[in-house]
Amino acid sequence: MKTFFLYAYLCLLFIGISTNSYAQKQFKFGDVPEEILKMTAYPTDTSAVAAVIYENCDLWYTTGSDDLRLNKNYTIRIKIFKNAGLDYADFSIPYIYGNNDSREHVTGITGYTYNIDENGKKERIKLTKEYIVEEKTSDSQRRKKIAFPNVKAGSVIELKYELSSPHYTHLDDYIFQADIPVRYSRYAVVIPEYFRFSKNTMGFEPIDYSESIENISFLFGGGHFSCSGYKMVFEVNELPAMKDDNYVWNKYDYMSRVNFDLKGIQFPYSPFRSLASNWQNIDQRLMEAEHFGKQLRFTGLLKNEIAEIKVSDKNDTEKITDILNLVKQKIQHNDKNDLFISDVRKSLKEGTGSSAEMNALLLCALKDAGYEPFPVVMSLRSRGRLLINQPSITNLNFYVVGVIADNKTIYMDASEKYGSLNVLHTDCMVQNARMIQNNKPSKWVDLQNTGRNVTTTHVTAKFNEDGILSGKFSANKIGVPAMNACHKYDKEKDLDEYQKKLESELDIKISDFKVDGFIETPNIVKESYTFENTNINLGDEYLYINPLLFPIVEENEFKAESRKLPIEFSYPYTFSQRIFFEIPENYEVDELPKAERINLNDGDITYAYLIKLEGNTLQINHSLTIKRTLYGVNDYEHLREFWATVATKNTAQMVLKLKAD
Amino acid sequence: MLRMPIEKPTLNQQGKTKTYEWVLEGYMPVEKEVYAPSLGSMAPSVIIAPVKFCMDGFCGDMSDWKSLGQWMYSLQEKKNTIPASFSDKLLEMTKEATTDKEKIEILYKYLQSTTRYVSIQLGVGGYQPMPADKVAKSGFGDCKALSNYMKAMLDVVGIPSVYVGISTNIKNIYTDFASLTQMNHAILMVPLPNDTIWLECTSPINPFNYAHSCIAGHHALLINENGGEICRVKPMPETADNQSSYYHITVKDNGNATAEIRNDYKLEAYEDMQFFVHSLSHEEQLNYLADENAFAKAKISNLQIHTNDNETPHMQLAYNMHIDKFANKSGTRLFVPYSPLKHKFRALKTGERKHDIIISAGSVRNDTLIIDIPENFIQESLPKSNTIHSQFGNYSIANTFENNQLQIVQQLFIKQGRYPAGDYEQFREFFKQIEKESNKRAVFKIKTN
pTM for the whole thing? Predict the structure, then answer.
């Protein structure tokens, strides 16, 4: 039930009767109505620097020399309101420029800039060739860069072009929403009856949909061939600008858009030509692919080392850890994250490779050691959520390795330097990843909760003979906190430097600084030290001290009054502290912060601040647990209030009073 | 040019190709430190420039700034023609203006409202401006094209100006070594009898004659018919980063509060806040202010923005705030944050300092807080007023408490300059003290009758 809301908005398909063909009928390329040219601000968002007034994209199929082509006709009209919106007059049209068979063609680029001249008259300037530059972006990619002339605040620009592509099985996502408001946008696709496709609409804003049947005529082998086609029209009106926010994995996940996935083609009297119609099909294609499955079949890549590990008397968890470590030593990560494996043997030889090569070596090595490892494919958080109802190989961009041992499933990513068994980089902690096992049906797994993420700290403090507040601090970190801690240590030159940094951040003096477990593939990281805090002086009549000494949340993370996007925490965790604070002899407790225990939505997040005095020792149990990572906008106000309480409690002070005698 | 200690290069010749090789051995990494001099100013480096060179058919001599300037000047020659009809329009626009400065301002604002920056970097185009008539037609260009275009417009109204090459990241270039790579930007300078005007031609929002922080005080290469000449752009005042604020806060006995707030931003602080006016929606502005203030939960209303976009630019924000849990209420006490303002100092590491300390821009910050404490509370503990003097600047915080009204005045001045590494501990201590003072709380206790 808790995760229901996510599916609810990601998969909503609004089917309705198209209500706004008004805007479409009104639109005439090359002729901007006065009212739009004279508009000074966008009515529903006066801060908008620009707005898409009209956008239209038609897609249809024709026949090329020996195969189908996908054609696109694109038109856009943008109004610029402010100087900060001038960038919206620059366009870039990327296209594939490979050999003849794969080359795309961009043609018919036409555009105008409209202004009102000094005499109050409408002025139209044509986009001529000199404003269109061709750029080579890679061996097979080019782009047309367009800069509209004479654009200033108040201008309206119009652009249209056509693109013809031989890559007819792939339709890009069509994104209606933008960083600026969109008044009207239409996307129409005509698909021949012989095509099998699935369509999905996503995002928060409603999308109008209508469909009809049209006759299409193809030219095949010198003769005409007609069939009927489904014409699908998607329209949106008045979409607000999409803005980024904190605690959002990827704002792209929430933009209103349409996705088409061609599943196959069934011409009359011909066999069905499947084009990845389902996930089983994708699994199979992946496992047979030169740069995926075939690269995972190598044996004996680390023959001697694996043989040694295999005969050792360690248990499975230890052996797997050794193998993971070995792989990290054999191949350095080149900072590239990938699904496809170019050449695992070459990477091993050169000692450097992408995540795909590192994990391929890990998988092969685990297999050699007698396990049955499998790839777990996904789309990283930073690349956008993978939707189960949209089977598509192009949406996959990463994989980790899974293995079942000691009666549990263990996930690993060799490219995460400080990752370990079931501790993955948060970018891989996705809701839907696909486990592709040999001879077993594949299944979907949720990688948000692969292991425990716990930080436990223990603090004892008292005023020493010299009247200085001093004590011992220790922390145990497990899971993602352990991984993060290692990255923090790693950022400094050495642990000495880390200690110095900590001293300045916490404004304390640190000695006996010790860290255990700062290794690649850490299991548990233990940090401990002795501290002195010279900021509190004994002797005053009243002492005001925050008894937590090491508060965990000092500021509300959700200060903004309003929120548009859901709240997504990085990972579930528990943070708990135990504090023992000895009250100095000549003081007594005058007032303590009140104990507090709050929870959000039946325990999705819980916070406790339990304080009691036992003899002259103050004991505090302080903890924050986040169980659920994803929250809807409806929960925002509660989260804001919750975090305000947590922040306030973390800065609360106790009052100690000098004894009368 | 060599910045030592690098041995002279070895030369290898193979056919027509000469290969120079510089070798640096056994050099320890330069440690990263905050407030440190730039890596370029500390690490050994080699800068290479050709003496005689040709680029796309334009030949020149880089042996000194004068000859390099000559080459750059030759690139712009004949690039400043403006169509006759456009000239008439410019003359018409400026005919009412009584002084040259007024005329320049009119044309600058016209430039800002009719052109935009588009980057163009191809071949000699990386150094050669697009002709002025092309900019007039297209309404866009890069820094060179727009500066040259502005120059051409000024020519029309009879005001001579000078095209200037500059670096936006390096304040002091190697003046004894002429090279193109030490510059990455172009601006325009207009010499007037009693004034020098500096024009940043790529920004639609930069105030007229305001040398912004990426060029102020930087070396500049003036380029005119006699060649190049190094000078400096008008520097910022010593305290370029200038902020002040006024808070009148009324605390209720549950710790919640209402506040009337004014924030003032000048010069660099104004630059940093320009996005607030130009890029944020009203809703985002409110969210930004809620986040900028250190309060756990606040609601903002009645936001008013005033700006003076002139040579000494200034922005003022005035708003009201409702603050939940402003004072931490704990049983019988109210803990009132003494200085509820977010300071943005980077935590300074303890330990040995390797490099000198550089404070590249001075800053000044004045805050006044008037806090009305509820009638039924009395003072229990007030932090002492304090003044800290150091070579890096001064800090003072002073309070009075009368008629249940707490008044706090906080002043901070940080002095621009270079300080020896040996003074690092003092430097750290200075900021630590400020941090400590501003984290204090005033404590009030409920009256017991």
Answer: 0.82
